[in-house]
Design a protein that fits this description.
globular, binds pyridoxal-5'-phosphate, 4-stranded mixed β-sheet, PyrdxlP-dep_Trfase, 17 helices, 15 strands, Aspartate Aminotransferase, domain 2, Aspartate Aminotransferase, domain 1, pyridoxal phosphate
Length: 451
């Protein structure tokens, strides 16, 4: 890897203009890293011609595999016909058609979909709907939002405020006021190497009762959680935890928001974690998987009574002052409709569920590798925590990521946690390849000597 002097050197690669998101820019640009130039099915192709098996569905989003012709054609067709039309006080058919089609996939009782362009926007939209809902009902004092430690809700000021990752917040000051956090549901001492939902931890939901007592329920608008936390390490909810959150919210008139940006659209063997786990929130945020990654899109699903509460005042008034220039963009809707058709026709969500047992077994076979602290899985999600090398947090994960990439497999590292979430078209043999390659990468440099 690189010495500190290399890291401070001016980029040698002519790639300085693009300020890369969530990237160690100087490290990345200090050497000529391979770039992805093509993709097909389960594979990327690098600019040096090497094929790379995609173990993370792009970034948890290419659920039907790469470059699906049907989606490409639908985007092209839409672009040729109607490149853009606003949804502010006007409209185009694809947005209405897509919203209807999406509602068919939602749990019973959901009546509307609000379109945005990303998970972050879907989350901020949900938080604003929650606040506006209470105000419309004459409870404008409900301004408090409750998130959870170790949750990720995107990068907007709203999502960042309710999220629970200190390192991502510290550069940005105080963020939103009136925000509190539940404790994380993860405790390695109690649940290491659980398979699926841990048995321990339902009682952690009781912390919400304490927050409510502290702040008074009349001040709390919404609780937002990822039903299964994805990017912070596949933190699977303890058995009974989400059910208890639902009960507590119901008892106090608090809206429950599930951020399903990762867990939506097949990743957990069902359309949503809500349907899989049988707990129905009031709002669901989604993004990844909607268009199979082909066009940016976010969607916030809303239960009918929430929408109805906001449909007040003069018929000429804008009931909810919110929206994006590209809300319901024709290309995104076309891609989303085509993606839904593929998901249905190929039964990809059921397929994912059918692969779960194989996935779980393959993941947990890494338990005996040196330095593996924990393995978690749910649906086609897995996380493997590695013991950090002394004095160098994150370096071991990055080293494993690079070694896998050189061996032709893309696996994500979040610090020293390895994250896997392949397209749902993955075969059992490819699953074995993903975990075997990771195992080899871990063995090759277990103590960091060759980093
Ligand atoms: C649960 C969750 N919410 C929100 C987001 C933000 O999505 P985006 O990066 O599309 O803004 C993410 C992204 O990983 C996510 O995992």
């Amino acid at each position: 890897m690189h010495s500190p002097s290399q890291l401070s050197a001016a980029p040698a690669t002519g790639r300085d203009a693009f300020w890369m998101p969530f990237t160690a820019n100087r490290r990345f640009k200090s050497v000529s890293q391979p770039l992805f130039v093509e993709a097909d099915g389960m594979y990327y192709v690098r600019d040096d011609g090497k094929r790379v098996l995609d173990g993370i569905a792009g970034l948890w989003c290419v659920n039907a595999g790469h470059r699906r012709t049907e989606i490409v054609d639908a985007i092209a067709h839409a672009a040729y016909r109607l490149d853009y039309a606003s949804s502010f006080q006007m409209g185009h058919p694809l947005a209405f058609e897509y919203a209807e089609a999406l509602l068919d996939t939602a749990p019973a009782g959901f009546g509307q979909v609000f379109f945005s362009n990303s998970g972050s926007e879907a989350v901020d939209t949900a938080l604003k709907i929650a606040l506006a809902y209470h105000r419309a009902r004459g409870e404008g004092q409900r301004v408090r939002l409750i998130g959870r430690e170790r949750s990720y809700h995107g990068v907007g000021f709203g999502g960042l405020s309710v999220a629970g990752i200190g390192g991502q917040r510290k550069a940005f000051g105080n963020l939103l006021p009136f925000v509190d956090h539940l404790p994380s549901t993860y405790d390695r001492s109690q649940m290491a190497f659980s398979r699926g939902q841990p048995a321990w931890g339902a009682h952690l939901a009781e912390d919400l009762v304490r927050r409510i007592a502290l702040h008074d329920p009349s001040t709390i608008a919404a609780v937002i959680v990822e039903p299964i936390a994805g990017s912070t390490g596949v933190l699977v909810p303890p058995v009974g935890y989400l059910e208890r959150l639902r009960e507590i919210c119901d008892a106090h008139g608090i809206l429950l928001i599930f951020d399903e940006v990762i867990s939506g659209f097949g990743r957990v063997g069902d359309t949503f974690a809500a349907t899989r786990l049988n707990v129905t929130p009031d709002l669901i945020t989604s993004a990844k998987g909607l268009t199979n990654g082909a066009v940016p899109m976010g969607a916030t699903f809303v239960r009918a009574p929430v929408y109805e509460a906001l449909m007040q005042g003069s018929i000429d008034s804008i009931e909810f002052s919110h929206g994006y220039t590209y809300s319901g963009h024709p290309l995104a809707c076309a891609a989303g409709l085509a993606a839904l058709q593929i998901y249905r026709r190929e039964n990809l969500f059921e397929r994912a569920r059918g692969l779960e047992a194989h996935w779980e077994k393959a993941a947990h076979e890494l338990a005996s590798r040196r330095g593996v602290l924990d393995i978690r899985n749910f649906g086609l999600l897995a996380a493997i925590d590695l013991a950090p090398w002394p004095g160098a947090p994150g370096k071991r994960g990055y080293d494993a990521h690079r070694r896998c990439l050189e061996a032709g497999v893309l696996i994500r590292a979040a610090g020293d946690t390895m994250l896997l979430s392949p397209p749902l078209i993955v075969t059992p043999e490819q699953i074995d390849t993903l975990f075997a390659t990771l195992a080899d990468a871990l063995d090759a440099n277990a103590d960091g000597a060759s980093a």
